[in-house]
Target: DUF3999 family protein
Amino acid sequence: MKPILICCSLLLAGAALAAPGQDRPHDYRWSMPIQSPAGAGIVQLSLPREVYLHASSASLADLRLFDADGKRLAYAIGAPPAQSATQRTNIPARIFPVTGTPATGDGLQGIDIRTADDGRLLSVSTRAGTAAATTALQALILDLGKQAQDKRIAALRFTPPARTDNYSAQVLLEVSDDLKQWDAIGTTTLNWLSNSDTQTLANDSIAFAPRAFRYARLSWQAGEPLAFAAITAQAVSETDIAAPRASVVLQGLPGKQANEWRYATPLAIPADSIALQLTQTNTVLPVTLGVYRQNSYVPRHRLHLRQQARPAQGAYFDPLLSTTFYRIGLDGKERISGDLAMPVTQTGEWVLQTSTEHPLADGNAPALRLGWTPATVVFLASGKPPYQLAFGNSNAAAVAQPLSQVAPGFKAEELLALKTASTGPLQTNAGAEAPRASARTGRRGAWPHCGRHCCWAWPYWAFLRGAC
Model:
């Protein structure tokens, strides 16, 4: 019995060593206060630029959110959701009445329609030689004009003639792009009801799923046809809203070679654009940008593919991008090369190499500008405010959760409508250990993080099995 108790004691001691210490704000080198909107249980936050400049992990595994009591908050992290803005514009329709024999079949027998070369409707008239039983109004044909490619028509609004007090009718709306094929898209009852106080209750529009069309035909299924004073189409268009961007400008230092410059880079930056800021005007500079890698590196993606010679051991230069940057004066203005898009690249150092024909003096080294799209954090605003964002701990393991566990049951449109938090100035936690940024640390998950402790528990477990 005594050996079993000894084994159990050793096992408990090993388990205690294996359990990571509880996260506290002072374990992290940097922090930023969070201003969270009152009353919001689920909040979104676009990660500030400072997080990427000071985080110890390429994957932001050391990112934490704490409440006022130092309790860790649950959060999810991911790319910002795609957003768009809806614009609505009113388009006056050109109205062409159709009179004569009541509409049958396609509704346009005995009707001549003339159009211009650009599709503009010119006239609608009774065909010569056709005996018209009546000159009464039968239908209306509308020309909405040529629409922009991104516009869709979502509704028509009708304005009755002056002194129309009471009117009610059921109408059918059909649409076409060529005045030959017509699609019925909806019916509605239009009515205007006025009382003795000249107050009017109106149902004066027909709405439908947004779609593109140029021509419309309105016919009556019940009630007397009416020549409306005006008909206005409501067009909607969706414009993509670009996600917020962040950037950093890095200063270079001379490299080992005469034509080489090195730019120390925060490892957490997921750069997807790159540019050079040239110091002198009228400069054209062909360059190769890349990184130094160890010979054991296995690439996941490349900006361009080409066989790269590697040394048997040690580091080698891996060229990722060859291009030409420029800054040219022209007629009192400057023409400057812009940012180049590229696959997301994370590295601790960018390397710039120029040809021997284009050497750079020490004082003329260009600055390197990197751009990226900050991730969005969605967190549960539990605990006691105010909250704070903490980062900068090379030993921290990732604690981010799936979005479905932070905001369960939320639909996409509800997530888009979440209230947004903001952050205050960057603060240094003097008592925290200085971060040791490395790519390897950034990719370690929760299981590798505890590995150095779990190795203590394993011998106790094996010993217990043998003893028991």
Q: What stands out?
A: The chain has three domains: 20-80+381-449, 87-241, 246-298+312-372. Residues 5-20, 435-468 have pLDDT under 50 and may be disordered. The two ends are 9 Å apart (CA to CA). The helical segments are 2-18, 49-54, 403-406, 412-416, 439-442, 446-449, 451-467.
